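go over this record:
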Amino acid sequence: MPAPDAITVRWAESSDRDAIAGLVEQTKRHYGEETETAAEIGTAVAGWLEAKPGNALFVVAFVGGAAQGYASVAVTPPAMGLAAALYLKELFVSPTARGRGVGHELLVFLAEFCLAENIERIDLTTATGNDAGIRFYEREGAAIQRQKVALRFETPSLERLAAARGKAR
């Protein structure tokens, strides 16, 4: 059994479904989002963990053998140049494990992966009001990119786009 404070980080496996589902539920509560049932979240996580195009990769962090954090990432192919980028969609650490190095170890794992796979950078966004998160990422070496603007297509926009196939604008 690992030491009570030992942090281990690895790629998630299908057997981690329930652990990740519990962390996703904590994430939703943390951000004040409506939480689906545990069964619905578990089903969604099981689908996300399937190896198929478009699915995210999950990295999970354990403290003393208990899942305490995760990162959801996707590798994006190069648009310019020859190296890919890693997009960090979510990084979450359970409130009880914050300040113990879990977030740092998740980023270290991802940095090592990027360097081994010729991935030139990690891109991420965070809420403008997430001052603690911004300070954390800056302490870890991230630089704020003010030349980019985050945009989003939500479901109504996706539906309009999908319905517009073949229609000239």
Observations:
- Helices lie at 17-30, 38-48, 102-116, 131-139, 155-163.
- The mean pLDDT is 89.
- The first strand starts at residue 7 and ends at 11.
- The chain has one domain: 7-144.
